[in-house]
Design brief:
It is built from twelve helices and no strands. It has about 230 residues and is mainly α. Helix 3 packs parallel to helix 5, helix 6 runs antiparallel to helix 7 and helix 9 packs parallel to helix 11. The chain is globular. The N terminus and C terminus are likely disordered.
Length: about 230
């Protein structure tokens, strides 16, 4: 792992981790999380702040996996997020604001999917306390990958994390609204867009409230009914 760190870490995260984290194969996702956890631990141990370059995309990829069907993967996702926060704090000379992420892991092991989602949302709020807004687009692109490729609880977790982010920072990402618009609209071309449509609709409602120059018409084609958008925002 130390030898790998001596090379450019961008390729490692992109080629080894990124593609496998959105795989349909749960074992491949678990293996990707194990590699990611090892890479982040090594970065932390050797004082490498390279991982911060991928903060937004890593958070976007790890977020849905906090509700992965495999309990081990859920725990690994939280481990990765914790390491990422520590690396960020050290690289920016900031204060670690992790709260009690570790203690929240128990909620992710609950058999109730409702409890898992609620716990995942609590973790999201802790992670977002120090989220670099310049990584907004990378985060949204990673969430889009989950929307287009994942199923079930991972999609719901991705949607929750996206909505929580927009609720917290919708008023602060003015410059990224056009690209966010494009990303949201590109999701609608997915054959399974109906599974995450409520989250996209709610995202639109939030942005229209936060940004005066944003309208629902700028996000969705005229053929889409206003009722659909309103339903997602309820």
């Amino acid at each position: 792992m130390v030898v790998l760190l001596e090379t450019e870490t961008s390729g490692l995260f992109q080629n080894i981790v990124h593609r496998s984290m959105t795989s349909d194969n749960m074992w491949e996702r678990k293996r990707a999380l194990q590699i990611c956890s090892q890479l982040l631990a090594a970065c932390e141990e050797h004082g490498r702040g390279d991982a911060c370059k991928h903060f937004g995309s890593l958070v976007g990829l790890l977020a849905p996996l906090t509700c992965d069907p495999m309990p081990t993967s859920r725990q690994l996702a939280v481990t990765c997020l914790s390491s990422l926060l520590r690396i960020q704090a050290k690289a920016t000379n900031g204060v670690i604001k992790m709260g009690d992420i570790g203690s929240l892991c128990e909620g992710l092991n609950d058999r109730s999917t409702v409890c898992q989602l609620q716990t995942s949302s609590k973790i999201a709020r802790i992670v977002y306390r120090t989220f670099p807004l310049e990584d907004t687009i990378d985060f949204m692109m990673a969430i889009k990958d989950t929307f287009r490729k994942a199923k079930g609880m991972r999609v719901r977790a991705a949607g929750r994390w996206m909505i929580t982010f927009l609720q917290m920072y919708g008023k602060d990402i003015c410059r990224d609204v056009p690209l966010t618009n494009y990303i949201l609209r590109s999701c609608t071309s997915s054959p399974q867009h109906s599974t995450f449509m409520p989250f996209l609709s709610q995202a639109v409602v939030i942005l229209t409230r936060c940004q005066a120059d944003v309208t629902t018409d700028s996000f969705f084609p005229a053929a889409w009914s206003p009722q659909t958008v309103r339903h997602g925002g309820e």
